[in-house]
Structures are given as C-alpha cells and as structure tokens.
Amino acid sequence: MLMKSSTQSLTEQLSARFAERIRNRLLAPGARLPSVRQCAQQNGVSPSTVVSAYDQLLAQGLVEARKNRGFFVRENGRATDAMRDAADADGVDAAAVDPALESSAANWSTAHWFAARAAGRAAPGVSPVNATALIRGMFHKISDKPQPGMGVFPPAWLESTFMPAAVRKVTHSRSLQDFSLQYGEPLGDAGLRRLLAKKLSTLNVHTVPEHIITTVGATHALDIVSRTLLRPGDPVMVEEPGWAVEFARLAALGMHILPVPRRADGPDLEVMARYCEVHKPKLYVSVSVFHNPTGYCLSPGSAHRVLQLANQHNFHVVEDDTYSHIAPEHATRLTALDGLQRTIYVSGFAKILAPNWRIGFLAAPPGLIEPLLDTKLLATLTTPALLEKALALCIEQGQLRRHSERIRTRLDAARSRSVKLALQAGCTFAAEPVGLFGWVDTGVDTDALAQRMLDEGYLLAPGALFHAERKPSTLMRINFATTQEAAFWQTYQHVVAAMK
Fold first, then answer.
1. In the chain, fewer beta carbons within 10 Å around the N or the C end?
2. pLDDT tens figures, 75-105
3. Residue 265 near residue 239, CB atoms below 8 Å
C-alpha cells in the first residue's frame, strides 16, 4: 500500500514497487504494465503520479513504451527507438486525463522513451506472472503472508530435529575427511542408492542400485533425461495443464512441445495417438500421481494404453513422481507396469524433507544408465556425498517415513479447511481436491487477479501458467497448506468483487 506519510513520495513508492517486481521477475520481460488510468485507480493516486513513476522506470531502462499499446517490461538486449509522447504510448489523450501530463509527456519524448520488438504477448491491462516468477517467489519474500501460489510446504511444516542430527552424525564420522577430499561416486552414494531401490520396490517399481543415479533435485533429473534423449527441435509430449517449469525448461532447450490434454483418468489418448502418427515424438513427460495442478491420478487402463503407444511408436516416457511421499503406494505408476523398459522414474525430497538439500534421483533402463550418467558428469561431475549420506540415515532409521505420515495427516486437515473457505468465497473446483494442490475456478481472469493480489501481498499461480501457450483462464492453482486462513479468502473476495 502506498503511504503519504512515507519518507518517499508516492511517485517513488510506486516506481520502486514496479522496479522490485521487474528485477525479481514477478513481472516478466514483455509483460504489460497497467494503463495510466488503471494504475491510478488501483493505487488511489492521480494519473500524473503514475506518469511520473513510469517516467522513472523508463529512465532506469526497466520498461519501454509501445505506440498506442502501453508500457511493457523491457526485453534484455533489445534495440530501442525514441517515441513521440506519453499519450501515444498509453493509448489515451494525455491532456484529457490531466493537463499536467502534457508537459510531462513532452519531457519524456526527448529524454526517456523507448520501444522494443518484444516477443511476449499479454492480454490488455494484464502483466502475467510466469514460471520463473513463481520460482523467484521462493527466493524473494513477497510478504509475511502465506503464499497460495507456492508449490512447496511451509517451512514450519518441514522443521525437524532428525535432519540436523543426521548431518551431525555423518560429519562426526572418521570417514568424513575421506569422502570430503575427493569426488563422490559418479552414480551417487552407494548406501543411498541401495535404500532408494528398496523404497521403490514398495511402489512395485523394481530396480537395482546400479540403475539409479542421484541428482541435484528432481528438476535436475528431468533435465538430465531431456539433454540425453533429445536434441533441439525434437517433439515432446507434455500433459496440459501441466507443471509451468517443465514447459519453460523444455522451451528453453528448443524442444517442440506437443501439449496433451490431461483428463481425470490420464492423458487424452486420441490426441497422443495423432501426435504419434504425425510428429513421431521422442518423449512423453507425465505426472501420473497427484498431477500438478489438477491432482488427478492415472487409471490402470490409461496407463496400459500409454505404454502400448510408447512401444508401438518408439518413444520413452519419463514419470515425475515428485509427490510420492504424500501419495498412496498403490497408485498406478507407468514405471511399475512397464518395469523400467521404456520408462524412466524421477523423484526427489525437496517437497517433503529439505528443499535446500537438493537431492533427487532417477531410475532408468539398463541401456540408458551410461548415457544419462555422462550427461550428469558433464554438468555437475558428482553430487554432494555428505547430504546423500545424511539422507540415507533418515531413510534407514525410519524418520523420513514417520515425517511423511505427519505431513500427510496435517495436509488432510489443511485441505479440508481450505476447500471449505474456497467454496464459501464463491470458487468451484475443476478437479476433486486431493494432494497438495487445488485446481480452482474463480470466474475472473486469473492473470489480472494475480496482479491485483500481488498488491495485497499474495503470490498466485494463475491458470495460464500451466499451458504450453499462454491463454486467458479463470482457473488458478492453490496450495492447500497455505490457503487455510480466512484472511486470504477475505482479501480474495474483496479483489474479485472489485474486478466484476
């Protein structure tokens, strides 16, 4: 909220707010800033204050003006050209809004105005939150409020005494110097891999330690698979809606993304079959259990058909089982049915244990282990043995299992409260509420809603994020662990009412 009593002027406060969001990527390159009129109305200031704030952003090189379209976050490294005046840039008659704008626009046209050939698209008046914005939101604290758009459990839920104790025990062993002064095993700590193989067997995914590779988190495991099996331009099938980071990561690698609609029982098999005939995809990326963002779980029938297509059309399947720690062991998994022949299993411990330990792993067919290991070695050489040994202790002594049980119990209670509040706030659920996330229909454009809620200190995950090509959506993903307080939903109702 802008404060007249602050040591900074309203112009400086507004400019600083936008600048911080741009630098933290909460406003992505190519995102459109609100119009002068809209921004003035939203923040309770005069249009001339907004003009002056945008002027400061232009002077800092953070935004640019596009004739008759408005103000946009600058793309780094883009060429710029001088613009005529403020009215042209914002698509309004500046003098009609406020006479003071006319002289300000004249100053702008000779000093600060820029335009660029920006690639991104945004709906009018909307500055979208993108995948990297959610990631950066994990590192740049938006506010002290619980964040509905985050994809992790609150830190207080993950606090434990057994993890520090495991690290102390490992570091006090006489072997500490031995494994600290040399690179670890290329595949990862042998003790941890042995325990992971045993843990996978409880999911009916049978493998041996030699066919498991530890990674720097599950995302790193997915990246290793992509860089090993794919080349730029290769077609890849990905579930839609799907994990925003996976779309962004594959796009950054230059892959041809083929979005497959995700239904309650699994992927749209007709769409997959057509892709196979026309594009000959090399890979299918799936979250079979507690799919992100819908929470759907794969049915056995759909799983068998997917594997038939994989064998018939010669593509691999990578199964991201990130939410295995809070999911039923009996849930249908492609890797269990396939026996790791055409499938690759990926998981990690950031969601359930310690995000900063960055320990993930993959289990793969024997013929892929060496090329996958080569990719790992080229990127990170090995992975930190100290934390892998500490994790092995947590698993071996049953502490991870008990911790996961406590989290599941707490999540069930939080989900019940969150669902009740969401329904009272006028939301509907587009999918049955299970797991960590809810897929909620708000009835309004959630890109616009996300920016309004950001002003209130809340980071949302709008539905457009979860599509390969951004398009308007009334859906949003909520984290049940961070939306169980009435204060958020009261603010949500107030903002939605103002948008209608």
1. C
2. 763 433 333 333 333 333 333 333 333 333 3
3. no
In angstroms and rounded to an integer, the radius of gyration of the C-alpha atoms of the chain is 25
pTM comes to: 0.80
Q: How many CB atoms lie within 10 A of CB 320?
A: 28
Residue 159 CB-density burial (10 A; 0-12 exposed, 13-18 middle, 19+ buried): exposed
> How crowded is residue 249: how many other Cβ atoms within 10 Å of its Cβ?
17
Residue that the structure tokens 């998994």 belong to: 333
47: preceding bond cis by omega (within 30 degrees): no
Residue with tokens 């698509």: 91
Report helix, strand or coil for 257: strand
> Is 484 in contact with 135 (CB distance < 8 Å)?
no
465: amino acid identity, one letter = L
User: Which tokens go with 252?
Assistant: 């950054």
What whole-number distance in Å separates Cα of residue 277 and Cα of residue 472? 30
Q: Assign 18 to helix, strand or coil.
A: helix
pLDDT at 181: 74
CB 446 within 8 A of CB 460: yes
- Express each pLDDT in 334-388 by its tens digit: 999 999 999 999 999 989 998 888 999 999 999 999 999 999 999 998 898 899 9
Tell me the helices (H) and strands (E) count for the chain, helix number first. 21, 14
C-alpha span between 95 and 93 (Å, rounded): 6
